[in-house]
Amino acid sequence: MSQAAAGAGERSLVSDLVMLTKPRIISLLLVTTAAPMFVAGTPGWSTVLLVMIGGYLMAGGANAVNMYLDQDIDDRMARTRLRPIPGGRMAPRAVLAFGLALAVAATWLLARYVNVLTATLALGGFYFYVFIYTRWLKRTTPQNIVIGGAAGAFPPLVGWAATTGTVDLTAIYLFLIVFYWTPPHFWALALLKQADYGRAGVPMAPVVWGERETMDQMLWYTILLVALTVIPVSFGAFGLTYLVAALASGGALLWGVVRMRRTTPWTGPAWWVYKYSLLYLALLFAAMVVDRQVGG
Amino acid sequence: MPLLFLIAASIALVCQGALVYAVLAGRAPASSPRPGARWAEVAWVVIPSLLLLAVLVATWIGIMEPVAVIPVAGVPA
């Protein structure tokens, strides 16, 4: 093998290992981990860095194990066909070992250098994603995203615990916000990819309930979400700056879901809801930090 | 601020109620015709509802909790 070919092979392995961690998804998880750290107090930058590294490793490990467990259906969906296992570039056992190694490293790092509660909560998110969502609910119920959403809601608890060593009512509301944000966010994508999920036999809501009922439920979840985002203001966790941001950004999300329900074809508005919901969550958590650090 | 909580919590509970009703009414059915599957669907929507209710009740109790007044010498509490 030439040096150029060997170099290309190494680059390909590195890019496959990065792909196993699903870095684009993790970037938002890190926002919802970091922001609560600054809402809860004034953490040192070394703590923030350690939590970001630990959070990336834990979430990346969970995503790699997810790809190991879903290898049979990833091959049947266009969206996932090019992943390292269905693409034939990595052995399934190597992917599993990689994922578990990342989770072990993350647990050690967080427990040793941050605190045990932070490590426990991060590990809780890993177990929830791997066993409750991927292994159990994903293939058995259209409520998979609703309950599975709890896995993605662990990061705010992780960030909060890293700064304070505890979890309080405000942290629980941050958990609930991500939990109730997940269905409208993910079902927008599921609506667009429903043929893929149908082929793979994954009972996502649009496949089982149909488009109309899924959109109705997205609307209920979005209204519920916007209502929940203002409750922390009522017990003094945030002030006016956050309230205005929550209502304005939440109102835009609600408008997007309503527009999706009323438009034919709905695919364009559904893409808008999917993409905007990502921005919405980041904006909401940024507003929390600004409110706390600058003053509401 | 209790008013803001009451409005937001009421909206949240109405929405959660609508989500439970959709499952009970069969508009959001289970993916399998097995008899147990329907009850599992009901459980998956009822459990978060109960947890949400518990958090809202805890929040309300926290909001209504009287603030402790620390008597200061010479100043009527």
Describe what this molecule looks like in 3D.
The complex is a heterodimer of chains A (296) and B (77). Chain A folds into 2 domains: 159 residues, Tetracycline Repressor, domain 2 (Orthogonal Bundle); 129 residues, Four Helix Bundle (Hemerythrin (Met), subunit A), CATH 1.20.120. Chain A contains 14 helices and no strands. The model of chain A has no long low-confidence stretch (mean pLDDT 94). With 77 residues, chain B is mostly helical. Chain B has a domain of 44 residues. Helices cover 69% and strands 0% of the residues of chain B. The longest helix of chain B has 30 residues. The chains are: A mainly alpha (296), B mainly alpha (77). Chains A and B meet through helix 9, helix 11 and helix 12 of A and helix 1 and helix 2 of B.
Succession of helices and strands of chain B:
HH
Tell me the distance between the termini of chain B. 24 Å
Q: In angstroms, what is the radius of gyration of chain B? A: 20 Å
* Helix-strand pattern of chain A: HHHHHHHHHHHHHH
Mean pLDDT of chain A: 94
CATH class of the largest domain in chain A: Mainly Alpha
**Morphology of chain A:** globular
Main sheet summary of chain B: none
Count of helical segments of chain B?
2
Distance between the termini of chain A: 62 Å
Q: Count the strands of chain A?
A: 0
What's the SSE blueprint?
The complex is a heterodimer of chains A (296) and B (77).
Chain A: H1 3-20, H2 23-40, H3 45-69, H4 71-74, H5 92-113, H6 116-137, H7 144-152, H8 154-164, H9 169-192, H10 194-200, H11 205-209, H12 211-234, H13 240-262, H14 267-294
Chain B: H1 2-24, H2 35-64
Helix pairs in contact in B: 1-2
Kindly list the characteristics that best describe this protein.
heterodimer, A: 296 residues, mainly alpha, Tetracycline Repressor, domain 2, Four Helix Bundle (Hemerythrin (Met), subunit A), globular, B: 77 residues, 2 helices, 69% helix, elongated
Concise account of the structure shown:
The complex is a heterodimer of chains A (296) and B (77). Chain A has 296 residues and is mainly α. Chain A is 81% helix and 0% strand.
